Give the backbone structure.
Amino acid sequence: METSTSRTVRTASRLDGIAPTIFTRMSALAVSTGSVNLGQGFPDADGPAEVREAAVEALRTGANQYAPGIGLPALRQAVAAHQHRHYGIELDPDTEVVVTTGVTEGVAAAVLGLVEPGDEVVVVEPFYDSYPAMLQMAGAVRRPVALRAPDFRLDVAELEAAVGDGTRAILLNSPHNPTGTVLTRTELEAIATLARRHDVLVIADEVYEHLVFDHHEHVPISTLPGMAERTLTLSSVGKSWSLTGWKVGWATGPAPLVRAVLDAKQWLTFTSGAPLQPAVAVALDSHDHWPKALAADLASRRDLLVEGLAAVGLPARPAEGTYFELTDVAPLGWDDADTFCAALPERAGVVAIPLPIFYDRPDAPGGGRTLVRWTFSKDRPVIEEGLERLARADLTA
């Protein structure tokens, strides 16, 4: 009888040390314990009814076979029009836009298509957990640059130290998950200066591009001087139109970079949900106002969550974008967020996300060992119920 360590059943070494995604584990924990899920960032409410009906109509009228690998022309044209309308970016929809199965596949295809084994990739830390997983699978060398608590701003000196002759790409995320930071034009200009100086690519995950609050502004780094030719931009319909389960996204940029994404994507999913693509085009073309209203509503839910967390001893800096808040559990006596989040369902009937897994160096000064991520993407009654449970619980270590 074969053992678990036999050649037959062993896992490929490229997966060594990559744990199952924290989001799957914590959402399963919420279900199994009947807890309020203030962890995983998916909305309780669906996106525009007309967009969903467009998907139904596409199903009924035969859009059920393979779409072109690069994406339906109508969607690629809608993406190009969106980029021009919002940012003045000119794109050829036939060569500079590719449809992806969400930004997660966009990141995977970009890394696999553009990064060689041994290449250095600078990544902003804390990072979405698919980034280090894909960099490891590609054999890249990860160079983290931290947004440090409590302000979570870019340390330009640390960035300058990380970017060098061996750097192939900077993997950027703004608005930033999980800190809620929106990088300023000044911070982006510092990144752009280094990218130009060292001739490196920027892979820009801008999936939260429309979910920005108060006076903050999302500036695509590709709009800065000398950056259009070296930036691959990723986004999707999921977050800004509350259709996360559709998993329809896009990559845009210079034709050679988009071609590299397509070359990798064809061996991942080949194509993405055919009946959803025309509906996403409807979202972009006819419901461009929807994300702005969503952002306004999210800002009020953010304020509700921040106020409630402060009341239980967990003050948070109001997020500038995305739909996440971070709190430090050290003042409650906890020395690590993992232990706090593991105890939280039993103590309070609430699930949150521990942040250490998003760091290479969670124990570094200003690191994330005691940080916890909460989401305000849920409906107000769900947030209120979660806060009431936290208020009734003993949260001290």
